[in-house]
């Protein structure tokens, strides 16, 4: 009997030994002869099982690599459009600010990398400000952000922005009640002035489900290449999920204006979030399209208006018999 066929019969498709039609112990030899040498049958079966498992792992990696390649190819024509858009901004000396907000592990950083991958690096900057210094704490709140604002022909992408005050700082009580109220009263006018003076302002909030956030945190904990992404704040994000939901609701209710609206990016599917974010950015500028055949319409299941998100959040509260939270005056 061919030993490969015999091993295949002994193992089921999932790598487990088959329990059907097994030879009796008396008829199943412990040793067999292969190439003139005695070999333990169990050793051969173990080797075959290892090979099957290694093949399954390699096949999974190959599928992941192929999926990543296809997704990268889908993004490429839109990334080429971003270069064309950037040329328009440079030629017309227009300024652009893109705000990336959202919960931890919502996919902001990965999206920023895809947006900027092929851009002219002399005409864009990614700004991710850390904890304010002692000097910055004595300054006008917006000053550290204003110092990073773009010059003519430049794009600045804020990986978290001045909205840190009403999101992270609000949840962890890192700002006073007065500072919070002052921000809510003033941010609308601040953004209106930016836009009135010619800045293109795009406000994006990346929305991830609690289950997907937990999965991403778990991966960060187990992957040494991603552990640096896991901060002390991240570790509390799941426990304080409802608190972050409350501040998100308040923020949208008070700062989603006709002049500077929020756009919500559903980001459980990272690739769809990245592709549709690029479409949103391209649609904000009246540049001449490089490829008119491309579909520039964002997926309505991925990109939602701030007003629609508020409606969904209010409906969810009613389903759970919660009183609608009253905004701070």
TrEMBL record:
Pfam families: PPK2 (PF03976). Residues 1-29 are annotated as: Disordered. SUPFAM superfamilies: P-loop containing nucleoside triphosphate hydrolases. Transmembrane segments: none annotated. Uses inorganic polyphosphate (polyP) as a donor to convert GDP to GTP or ADP to ATP. Belongs to the polyphosphate kinase 2 (PPK2) family. Class I subfamily. Homotetramer. This is ADP/GDP-polyphosphate phosphotransferase. The lineage of its organism: Bacteria, Candidatus Moduliflexota, Candidatus Moduliflexia, Candidatus Moduliflexales, Candidatus Moduliflexaceae.
